[in-house]
Amino acid sequence: MKIIDLKMIRDLWNMRGQVIAIGFVIIAGVSVYVSMSSVADTLQGTLKTYYEEYTFADGFASVRRAPESLGDRLRRVEGVNQVETRVAASVNLEIPGFDEPVTGQIVSVPEGDQPRLNRLFIREGRLVESGRGDEVILNEVFAEAHSLTPGDELTAIINGHRRSLTVVGIALSPEFLFQLQPGSLFPDPQRYGVMWMGQRALSAAYDMEGAFNDLSFTLAPGASIDNVTDRMDLLLDPYGGSGSYPREDQASHNLISEELNQLAAMAFLLPMIFLGVAAFLLNIVVSRLIALQREQIAILKAFGYSDWAVAMHYTKLVVIVALAGVVVGTGLGIWMGGAMAEMYLQYYKFPFLNYTLQWPVVLTAFLLTVGASLGGALMSIRRALRLPPAEAMRPEPPPSYRMTLVERLGLQKLLDQPTRIILRNLERQWVKSALTVIGIASSCAILIMGLFWGDAFDYIIQVQYGIAQREDITVTFNEPTSASAVYEISSLPGVQHAEPFRSVPVRLKSGHRSYDTGIEGIPPEPYLRRIINTELQPITIPREGIVLTQNLAGILQVRPGDKITVEVKEGRRYEREVPVVSLAEQYLGLGAYMNLRSANRLVGGGSAISGVFLMIDEQYEDELTQALQDRPRVASIVSQDRAIESFMETSAESMLTMTFVLSLFAGVIALGVVYNSVRISLSERDRELASMRVLGFTRGEIAYILLGEMALLVLLSIPIGLGIGALLSRWSAQSLQTEMYRIPVILGSDTFSLAAAIVLIAAIISALLMRRRLNKLDLTAVLKTRE
Amino acid sequence: MEGTDAEVVFETRGLAKVYDMGEVQVHALRGIDLELYRSELVVLLGASGSGKSTLVNILGGLDTATDGEVFYRDRDLTKASERELTDYRRHYVGFIFQFYNLIPSLTALENVEIVTEIASDPMDPKEALELVKMGDRADHFPSQLSGGEQQRVAIARAIAKRPAVLLCDEPTGALDSETGVIVLEALDRVNRELGTTTVIITHNVVQGDMAERIIRLKDGQITDIRRNEDKKAPRELKW
Ligand SMILES: Nc1ncnc2c1ncn2[C@@H]1O[C@H](COP(=O)(O)OP(=O)(O)OP(=O)(O)O)[C@@H](O)[C@H]1O
Ligand SMILES: [Mg+2]
């Protein structure tokens, strides 16, 4: 090995504490980047393969009832490749040992065969056999939620008749990665499940022989989905079609692609912060190293080492630190990525998962890290390069200090000597001080950003389910029913309040913008399903006009006072102009609300309702659901609390892991910044401090000078970090919010306290490490060496 | 030695150096005309601030003149680029400084090796240490050596590449007289045995007795060049 490289290695060894601190920050950044990117790539890749191999449909549609012959006409539509017609039925289920209401969707599959589209991955058991009317295949999440295996039985109420069904297989389908009950926002596999049944058996049970009510299709190469859905709708409308829609609007696909996009966004943002901090740390460490080695640089140059060789010497040092960080970080990232992928495999229920680490990810990690590190060190290296050897032989002139602002204002009498030293030093090295503040603040900001999600979701749940949607149970009917059903249901045991609603499937249009959704008709002064404004005050639903949620108004680009076109997609299709009267605040989901009467007028029927919201006495819940399930017209019974609960359960777990990892990494950053800054101050000022010790200052007083400076910076950083964190949260909320979620930027005081506490703890740990070093300050050695 | 047949190593004509300090200009050298010959040992005397270091730094290619010319044999150092100066220092010049300036993270031997590694015809680094009687301390780090020992390692480092010229800026400045004599002996020996042209800066008039010529500087000008007819060995010097 060349001696100059040996020197580099010894230099690295001498500053190992700092190198390790920087290394950790790099490792944190790289491992987060590699793991999250590789998981995002893996999931995208897996999803793509899964969709291809199991022929996930490009579009879907449902009708009330259409003859099989329509299928052939649909197949001939220009741009359509394959069409698969089927029967889909919403049913109530009874599962032995589980007494809460369970609803399900049964989808038909050819008997003894795979469907051509949305093929099933049979995890266990087999497909349904022809001629066996009682066989079903369960979606795996649902089966797992109830520990059902092939051979088990359950009861379904299909079309008003109880039927005993036997589970013959457990399957996965690209169509139901997430099982979302229509109208609900979170999957709840205990209370809602998808299952498959033989085509003939289901048709017979559902009075659909020779007919279908649901279909999916694939596109011919190069065909445009919009054109195809338009052409299909023309054919489907006479049969009560509610409009065909593309894969993008399919509930499961929609949810999973949003989650994957969020993952990819996070995979980039977080590591950038880490690498930025690492660059800053390398900057201060290398610039200090080069200042310390002024004379060594001069000697090397005096003896004929070229500027280039000297620059390379320090460049190598930086690259080695960066490389070590990248190698360890990548290793850790692959391990974390594998574990995360495993977690996601469980969560998403993919039939297979090929963990792939794409080389561009590693290459990007490498380039970003080395780039950031060199970027951080570049200025200092250039200084070393430009240092004329004769100049460098002379000791650096004493740093020039001046009175600080506080002193110039005549307040010096308030300050003791050590405090003045602290203030003068901060003012003299204001760039370094500012960077230190930014570094610590960024760790605080990362924490806020991580913790923010918890706060936001708490707030959403509180607003949406505490103030706005106060119903306990939502009952929907198979089809619009006479308004008197409200009174009927009111009289059931345990019902404290019943409130009707009417939903109308519509397409809302404004100019060239349009959005398919449902209008919900509700009483003018609703007690349960309340509509709130931005001040969270319930608003009265006016007699005329429509109320839109803010995000829906945003999509349509309309404001109160504007008129929109409502295309009713129920029954005969027609359009109406309706004024927008006000906007509603709603974080989860989007929607349009009208007075119950005007909603009914819109469809032209009498006073019909689609369902009722109920407030109930919990004691009677079981009895009530039993009573409701026995009514033939009841299509679904959704319990609000359960939906929230199950959502919170799954998300709380991942939130906790996320918070823990973030706290750990933010702590690493804070520790790295504080440790390095103090370490460098010590090396810059060990002579000064040792001289003060010689003059009779105590260890405590010396420590005060050094650590007091840092304490001041940390205290300054925390509010700045909280501010930046709030901005980052706003940014991530904005970039991650979707049509379905609007994320309010709400930060609880707990979040601020926790973030501040973690930063303080990290600072205290580094202060303790430094205090030990200070106590060991060797007075004679420090004063002997010439600098 | 002197005269037409003596081989000229350095030649300067009207050499001047001005440090521009903004408001004031410091004239460190004002018109130096000087010739140095092959294998001679010269002592440079002068008050603090008289320009000794500046002159030697320019001769060694560490610094460049503001005006005038300086030649190392037929190399014009005033017109040399940074790259050429680096090359010149690498192959022809050895430096010794008042504060030794060893690299603290390298052992005595490695401090020598770091220079021989890039030289074209170096001696064995161990041999260089032997020459200054430091062979048995080869594996010690600078912090484990006394000032005199460090300075001898610095000499070994300077001579190990067999430089044509050896430029020493107050090599004994930080040493007591006994240790100083040991260091001067090492320099004298290198000058005799390797025939290296040697320039020694000192504040110590007595050290002039070991030189062939003594040059005095005052305010950036040469006031006096004296030939020493009675050259003494360093051991005979007392201060
Ligand atoms: N980089 C510099 N900038 C400004 N002035 C300088 C610089 N280097 C040297 N000088 C000035 O040039 C003059 C000559 O300096 P030089 O170091 O050559 O003196 P010297 O004879 O070596 O002194 P000493 O015996 O104290 O080492 C001095 O007045 C010094 O202040
Ligand atoms: Mg000098």
How many separate helices of chain A? Answer: 22
What is the helix fraction of residues of chain B, given as a range? Answer: 25-40%
Task: Give the total of beta strands of chain B.
Answer: 10
User: Tell me, what's the shape of chain B?
Assistant: globular
Q: Structural class of the secondary structure composition of chain A? A: alpha+beta
The major β-sheet of chain B equals:
6 strands, mixed
Q: In what order do the strands lie side by side in the largest sheet of chain B? A: 6-7-8-3-9-10
Radius of gyration of chain A equals: 34 Å
Q: What percent of the residues of chain A sit in helical stretches (DSSP H or I)? A: 40-55%
Q: What structural class do the secondary elements of chain B suggest?
A: alpha/beta
CATH class of chain B: Alpha Beta
GO molecular function (chain B): ATP binding; ATP hydrolysis activity; transmembrane transporter activity
Domain ABC transporter (chain B): 10-237
Protein name (chain B): Putative ABC transport system ATP-binding protein
Family (chain B): Belongs to the ABC transporter superfamily. Macrolide exporter (TC 3.A.1.122) family.
Describe what this molecule looks like in 3D.
Chain A: The chain crosses the membrane at residues 20-40, 263-286, 317-337, 357-378, 430-453, 655-678, 702-731, 751-770. Chain A: InterPro entries: ABC3_permease_C, Lipoprotein-release_system, MacB_PCD. The complex is a heterodimer of chains A (787) and B (239). Chain A has 787 residues and is α+β, with helices and mostly antiparallel strands. Chain A has 22 helices and 20 strands. In chain A, helix 2 runs antiparallel to helix 7 (251-292), helix 7 runs parallel beside helix 10 (359-386) and helix 13 packs across helix 20. Chain B is of the alpha/beta class and 239 residues long. Chain B has one domain (40-63, 82-236): P-loop containing nucleotide triphosphate hydrolases (Rossmann fold). Chain B has six helices and ten strands. Chain B has helices spanning 52-59, 82-92, 108-116, 125-131, 147-159, 177-194, and strands spanning 8-21, 24-37, 41-46, 67-72, 75-76, 93-96, 165-169, 197-201, 213-218, 221-227. In chain B, a hairpin with a 2-residue loop joins strand 1 (8-21) and strand 2. In chain B, helix 3 (108-116) packs across helix 4 (125-131) and helix 5 packs parallel to helix 6. Chain B is globular and about 50 Å long. The interface between A and B is medium-sized, with 25 and 31 residues. Bound molecules: adenosine-5'-triphosphate and magnesium ion (MG). Adenosine-5'-triphosphate binds next to strand 1, strand 2 and helix 1 of chain B.
